[in-house]
Amino acid sequence: MVSHRNHPLRQHARILAASLVGTAVEFYDFYIYATASALVIGPLFFPAQSPAARTLLAFMTFGLAFVARPVGAIAFGHFGDKVGRKSTLVASLMLMGGSTLLIAFLPTYAMAGPLAPALLCLLRFGQGFGLGGEWGGASLLAVENAPRGWEARFGAAPQLGAPLGFLAANGLFLILTLVLPAPAFAAWGWRIPFLASSLLVGLGLWVRLKIGETAAFRAALDKAPPPRVPVGELLTRYPGAVVAGTAGVVACFAIFYLATTFALSFATTKLGYSMQAFLGVQLVANFALAVGIALAGYWADRRNPSRVLATGAALTILVGLVFGSGLASGSLLVVLLTLAVSLLVMGLAYGPLGAWLPTLYPVGVRYTGISIAFNMGGIIGGALAPFAASWLALVGGVAFVGLFLTVAGALTLCGVLLAPRQHA
């Protein structure tokens, strides 16, 4: 029996904290923009367009960061596989956090004309570029230091950063909308969450600078030098793993951004809910995501990550059949239940990724491999989600919105079932 003093979670507390905090910052940074894009970005940066066009343009700037993520994945993956996980993680966090902070100081269209949306898009690209190297490094920091049999639970630590980051972002927006009049929030209040990100980034850097390199990376360097061009070796020797890994990520992104960004925009514009009421609903539903991730990590260590991920994908297919109708029901209780169930299922599709994706690639190209797969999956499942959902709602009604989840779940299930042999 493992004593309390020698318990793996206690022994590796600093490593787990470093992976958790960094991912919490990642999701905080990304979700404050997602929330702002649903509430204020359109009118402030694209005022000359129609309301529907403003919403679509705001979501397009949201999706731009997803396009930048694979570029960042290749760049940071290159150095993560050649130089090491720790230093690469520090650099990615600084770029991502710096871009987020600068958004707080952007002029609006009324102040700077077309320059305002151009600068917004530039900083969104910087956010996505930095984020491209964040999740992969945080996951490897946990999994490559995990004791045998604890890989999935350690891999779930950075995943828990998602509900924590969401909680911080959503909670801060809720407080601001409660204490500030609507004109003040639109004029300057929306900038406060972007300013506050500097505190979280500072905390993340402080924790990460105190840790060392992962055991698996050190061992790989002792055996052989790293590849000259990790992405070249990855795409030449392991293309099937890249495709399978990308597909395996789609479902979790699709659920998250439909249950958060799209749902917030739809509920506050079409259903007539106040921002405060619906942010509160999402805040409560967020706890289901944390439960799903924790359950997935424990279950994956008892069985295996691929089985848990396949279960999450299959349930995503089913959730997609009722998501749109539940969201459009008009009942706050039904909407809350819809979002909670969706985020619980997301936890089952998201929680095992930290342990499953690294098994698809050898250590020498692992940072690049999981970063590219995760961020390419993010483009399909995340960047397209709010945009596709808005379009589906316009042409077919809200009931059709969930079909995007059904397709996403099917893609992830195919990725898990067709994944190549696993690496230790």
Any overview of this molecule?
This protein has 424 residues and is an all-alpha fold. It has a single domain (8-208, 237-417), classed as MFS general substrate transporter like domains (Growth Hormone, Chain: A), CATH 1.20.1250. The protein has helices spanning 8-11, 13-45, 51-82, 85-103, 109-112, 115-131, 134-143, 151-159, 161-179, 182-187, 192-208, 215-223, 230-237, 239-269, 275-302, 305-327, 332-350, 353-356, 366-396, 403-417. The longest helix has 33 residues, at 13-45. The mean pLDDT is 88. InterPro entries: MFS_dom, MFS_sugar_transport-like, MFS_trans_sf.
What is this structure's SSE topology?
Elements: H1 8-11, H2 13-45, H3 51-82, H4 85-103, H5 109-112, H6 115-131, H7 134-143, H8 151-159, H9 161-179, H10 182-187, H11 192-208, H12 215-223, H13 230-237, H14 239-269, H15 275-302, H16 305-327, H17 332-350, H18 353-356, H19 366-396, H20 403-417
What's a concise summary of this model?
One of its GO terms (molecular function) is transmembrane transporter activity. With 424 residues, this protein is mainly alpha-helical. Helices cover 80% and strands 0% of the residues.
Distance between the termini: 26 Å
Going by helix content, strand content and strand pairing, the class is mainly alpha
The geometry reads as globular
CATH fold-type name: Growth Hormone, Chain: A
- Listing every helix as H and every strand as E from the N terminus to the C terminus, the arrangement reads HHHHHHHHHHHHHHHHHHHH
Number of helices: 20
Would you identify the CATH architecture?
A: Up-down Bundle
Approximate helicity band: over 70%
Beta-strand fraction estimate: under 5%
The CATH superfamily label reads MFS general substrate transporter like domains
Summed over residues and divided by their number, the pLDDT gives a mean of: 88
Return the CATH class.
Answer: Mainly Alpha
Number of domains: 1
Assembly level: single chain
pLDDT < 50 stretches: none
Number of strands: 0
Most strands sheet: none
Gyration radius, to the nearest Å?
20 Å
InterPro entries: MFS_dom, MFS_sugar_transport-like, MFS_trans_sf
Domain Major facilitator superfamily (MFS) profile: 15-424
Protein name: General substrate transporter
Pfam families: Sugar_tr
